[in-house]
Amino acid sequence: MTESSSDNLSNLLHETRTFPPSGEFAAQANVTEADFAQAEQDRLGFWDTQARRLKWRTPWTETLEWAPPFAKWFVGGTLNVAENCLDRHVEAGLGDRVAINWVGEPEDDTRTITYAQLLDEVKRAANALTSLGVQAGDRVAIYLPMLPETVVAMLACARLGAAHSVIFGGFSAQAIHDRVTDADARVVITSDGGYRRGAPSGLKVNVDEAIAKGGTAIEHVVVVKRTNQDVEWDDTRDVWWHDIVGGASNEHQAQAFDAEQPLYILYTSGTTGKPKGILHTSGGYLTQVSYTHWAAFDLKAETDVYWCAADVGWVTGHSYIVYGPLSNASTIVMYEGTPDTPHRGRWWEIVQEYGVTILYAAPTAIRTFMKWGEDIPNGYDLSSLRVLGSVGEPINPEAWIWYRRVIGADRTPVVDTWWQTETGAIMISPMPGVAAAKPGSALRTIPGISAEVVDNDGTPVGNGEGGLLVLTEPWPAMLRGIWGDPDRYQETYWSRFQEQGYYFAGDGAKKDEDGDLWLLGRVDDVMNISGHRISTTEVESALVSHPLVAEAAVVGASDPTTGQGIVAFVILRGENVEGADTVAALRNHVAKEIGPIAKPRQIMIVQELPKTRSGKIMRRLLRDVAENREMGDVTTLTDDSVMNLIAAKMPTAASED
Ligand code: WTA
């Protein structure tokens, strides 16, 4: 165990397993070590080269104009994002290639859409939106389930130079209201409803309620028919998608827009209640999502079947369901429903059925599958898979190993990709044909990207030490600001290391002895035990490395002697049942794995953990429970009954020792 200064994050967990790519994989890989060297030598030249993957109408005159913290990439260049995702592929003779294999939640409800068909539909939708008055520079809100129409709507906006603001289909009327008023959207595209665990739930009803609150600029609501449920109808405002899009012409010329034309706003939660509208633009964003989708997943567009299992309402869905994959003319799978509907093998049935070759998922899903047991995936033929990806949270080494062994047959590279809504695209990730992967490590920045781990003063930490993750150079897909709030943009991301000009990501990280990067979770979640700054991620990973444990969440709760004490909430695997022995065994296991300092004061065995709708554990709420406090805001939870169950189990006594 290494003890670093109390200012820095301790480096506790030592993971020594490595997984180099097979010789066969490395030999055919898209990216080689030479790409890193080339990008290192000439960073802007490297991005210039990557931008040439796209079709530009006017070439740019300057690669980067950097007036910190405001960037413009590919200055003077013009392009159309939708044309890059559709028209140019059809013109290249790829019209018959499948763009979307769509799988509905109800079984046998599927659609196959080629590039030519998708282009046709996007042209109609662009004409339909134009007829509603949508123009370049406007904002359009999209509140839809995982439907092909969602992709069509996004691309139709892009085609018109209007920014979309996709609002996750699980959000409430209040959340819709906040977002459409902040973005000043004039049109909302929604559906009658969507399927969730077998039952149709209403969506338009939430839009109606949001508009009824008043103060929005919404003039039109376009409604996709999905569930056939009854909806309220306002003739002056509401139109059916099938009427307006179905009846529109499929002739539409895509216009060229400036590289910095806003492409979308995506709201992400901040430390205060008000969500931040993260703004992304066109040329730089598309360059980096296109490159990273090709590079990190070793994409072979002619043969791969690529499935990103995120929701399109999150940035992962924007960048790696829609813009990255379609700009690369790849064939994607898009699944509407949950992993356990109608049975817990649904994902693996889809992989088998469509011959999925690349799967991109979140650690929360992987740990859920671990909990359900490996017999389920073992019942399917997963041999088509050749690359696995992870995103959204630190992946515990044991979950990483399980993913590779059970899903990847101990054969596929696993890429742990670190990035954020704000970064727009993958920033830190192994390149599958180059790296000897380490379970739980995102390894190093991709070519063309620069990051550091620094202490509170902005000085880089040494190998074997932990600190704060910063990005030291601007990157093409970087956020261009927070919608309508330049001060908050400066303050949130650029004020902490203003002197050095670093972007502060808000994540803790460490460098191992080789200088490779390990992400340690949000800085707000770091615990301070007797003056040692310990990351929740490392203790959670130690717990998950015990064969009984599927998932763990750890928080620091105030403690009269140590400042904070570690409280762990643990979900057991499969049918394992709790007992006093289990808790003692787990505490000792952590002490053995990372040292006595990290031994949890308390361990609670629970059935579920509180998660945001994108699958991140909400440690803030667990802290409230651990400190016997009244619980904070639970509105962003997927299921708020979870917290009541956990709170009911919590003893009021402080320690078990
Ligand atoms: C976390 C999702 C560790 C991190 C694309 C980041 C990760 C936040 C990883 C952004 C990873 C994402 N390892 N942590 N591979 N990927 N994170 O905006 O805390 O939903 O700051 O974007 O997720 O979440 P967001």
Report on the architecture of this protein:
A seven-stranded mixed sheet has the order 5-4-17-16-18-19-20, with helices on both faces. The protein starts with 22 loop residues before the first helix and ends in an 8-residue tail after the last helix. Helix 8 (173-183) crosses helix 9 (204-212), helix 11 (283-296) crosses helix 12 (315-327) and helix 18 crosses helix 19. It is built from 21 helices and 30 strands. The protein has a domain at 518-652: ANL, C-terminal domain (GMP Synthetase, Chain A, domain 3, 2-Layer Sandwich). Helices cover 31% and strands 23% of the residues. With 657 residues, it is α/β, with parallel strands linked by helices. It binds 5'-O-[(S)-ethoxy(hydroxy)phosphoryl]adenosine.
